[in-house]
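Hi R.,

Here's the chain you asked about this morning:
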Amino acid sequence: RVLFRSCDTSMLRVALLAVCVALVAAGDPPIPRLSDTFSVMFAYDYLPVPEKIEPYDWLYYSWPDRAQRIEYAAGNSHCIKFYNTSNPCTLIFAGNGELWVDKPVEVECCYVMDLGTIKPDFLRETDFKYLNRTEWFGYMADGFYEDDADGARKVFYRQVDKPNSLVWWSNGDNKRQFYFDPSTYSEDKLPASLFELPDYCTRECPY
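And the predicted structure, written out as tokens:
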């Protein structure tokens, strides 16, 4: 009788453990963290969401260098609106916390403001929560969101099978949308020279 009770209790514990494991497995994915180093091609400012994305800009990120580089191709609305050029422009988030814009065709470069590189775990330091799992341009992705005080919703999607990757980012203002091409995503080490300023970066921007 005692042996039966022990066996019955053990089986109950196993059953409870199985239920707990199932509940954990079925829970929401953890809030993502960016890789310390990565590069990826992306498209900017497409609205509404198109059926097909054709990325042509590049994002380079290196947390060890505290640096980031965004290369916008010719005709990008960001370069036109903020930096008065329809030619390519590059934003360089230098390791010292300064943001510079380089316009290589014009051989012009100027200091914009003090703006450091975002931390790889910035989503975890805010109020982002799990949103849903859906397909983005052929890739299964998990979405996370944060609602601002004014009602704007920021949304971040990453690949299910690559939890540090990026698929889509919205700043919540229905204007600035970033669509990343997962096929170009790489976590290979980036050379520090990629984040160095050209010699002609010597002045403040007039705008």
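The first helix runs from residue 2 to 25.

Let me know if you need anything else.
M.
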